Amino acid sequence: MSSQKQSKSYMVTRCKPLLGTFVEISVDEDHFHAEIDYAFAAIEKIQTLMGFHNPDSELNHINRLSHQQAIEIHPWTAQVLRVAKQIHRQSQGVFDCGIGHRLVAAGLLPKHIDYHNHDLGGIKDVCFLSPELITSTRPVCLDLGGIAKGFAVDMAVRILRSEGISSGAVNAGGDLKVFGDNPRPIHLRNPHNPKELYKIGNLQNAALATSSLYFANRSQQASHLINPLATDESERFIQNHDSYSILAKECIYADALTKVLAISKQINHPCFAKFSAQAIRISA
After folding, report:
1. pTM for this predicted structure
2. For the residues of the chain, what is the DSSP string, one character each?
């Protein structure tokens, strides 16, 4: 974050429905429309590869077959899986994207595969045989939704920079990355009153991700925040309505680490220092 410079308005802002949310790309120059299209195309590619809702996605191919045979995967999928395994290891299992079946059972994700007769594993059971060839020692039901969204933001920024855009921002439903010399003011919602915003400073050349149940039905037992280490079913779904945010250099880490914060409730969890991240928790 930075508070040294005043932000200015972006010249071009475009928005598309992607990744289960609205993705907004803003840049400071007004003549880079084709380059913004390239960034959106990359995000669409990531959605095609790693989207849970598409039964034919590469992710669901992994979920369906990786315990039976080696699966050759796209380099981007491989990168996300490697980071997921890294964060799982550093968080001592608090982060685990192998909870897709829990979300399916709760009615929060579509049911593409029958898992009733399987002893399901997690991200730790996914093994790399080569940089882009994987297998799993047990059946898995991976959900890469959040961490893939963070990766998509990072990839969009990478493409914008490579195309000569010096300053801008990509925002995908709570996953934000700002690049260049123009800092962007950052506001977080008050969990008790989501219409109220707190300004926490300015973001520059960094990423911020937030997880919360702002607009969830508070009478529902299930939530999209799941504790993979819970042994008691009543403790599996996180019902705390605090706001959990992570500042990091890359959005893929910021998004994944919000789950570590939401589950552990530890503002100084050792995992954050490993990835040079800073946690922000706003109590409801």
Report:
1. 0.91
2. -B-SS-----SEEEEEEETTEEEEEEES-SS-HHHHHHHHHHHHHHHHHH-SS-TTSHHHHHHHHTTTS-EE--HHHHHHHHHHHHHHHHTTTS--S--HHHHHHTTSS---S--TT-----GGGEEEEETTEEEESS------HHHHHHHHHHHHHHHHHHTT--SEEEEETTEEEEESS--EEEEEEETTEEEEEEEEEEE-SEEEEEE--TTS-TT-S--S-B-TT--SGGGTB-----EEEEEESSHHHHHHHHHHHHHH--TT-HHHHHTT-EEEEE--
